[in-house]
Write a structure and sequence with these properties.
6-stranded mixed β-sheet, mainly beta
Length: about 130
């Protein structure tokens, strides 16, 4: 899990390269039944807690604009290697901020598949 940086109220784009566990090839749109995400503020002040962020709980994400059948290589979004990413999503913050206060956040995606267990993607973000 990679740690990213953001500012309060700032939009965020999450990218990843996801391969199918069965045959180690890129996940395809046709493999996916649904995608949803939930965002949490993490707190360790009085024991570890996860607080759900209002407006970012169990949000359904469109498959066609999130999963790519071929890797994308936008150098502004992906700097890890030359291969690229096939998952890209920016949560809508037009009504509810994704990062309403300072702290560490976890954004969790659940990708339900046709013929395998769901894929869980987790992104950590420090907000300053």
């Amino acid at each position: 899990m990679q740690l990213s940086q953001a500012k309060i109220g700032q939009p965020m784009i999450f990218v990843a390269r996801i391969k199918n566990e069965r045959d180690n090839v890129l996940l395809q749109q046709s493999d996916v039944v649904s995608i949803e995400y939930t965002a949490y503020l993490l707190s360790s002040l009085s024991g570890f807690r996860k607080e759900r962020i209002p407006g970012h709980q169990g949000i359904v994400v469109p498959i066609s604009s999130t999963i790519y059948d071929e890797c994308q290589t936008n150098v502004h979004l992906w700097t890890l290697d030359q291969i690229g990413y096939n998952f890209c999503h920016s949560p809508d913050i037009s009504i509810f901020s994704l990062f309403p206060q300072y702290g560490r956040y976890e954004v969790c995606y659940s990708i339900s598949l046709n013929s395998a267990n769901p894929i869980q993607l987790h992104f950590l973000v420090d907000v300053e």
